[in-house]
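Lecture 7 notes: from sequence to structure.
We start with the chain below.
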Amino acid sequence: MTCWRRLVAWAEAGVWPRLHEVLLAELAELRGANLVDFSRSAVGGFHIRALNRGPKTG
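Predicted structure tokens for the same chain:
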């Protein structure tokens, strides 16, 4: 319950959007210095809801 209360408190305090901004700014700085290697990266969308199961493919 302590973890849950802290997550809720952080959400109410706006921690998550601010953390997102900080991480994006850090990534932009690293990319600007050419210090990020995306050759071994992957993009996942598991947290995005697929409405209507997506487009029909076949």
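Points to note: The chain has a mean pLDDT of 87. The chain has two helices and no strands.
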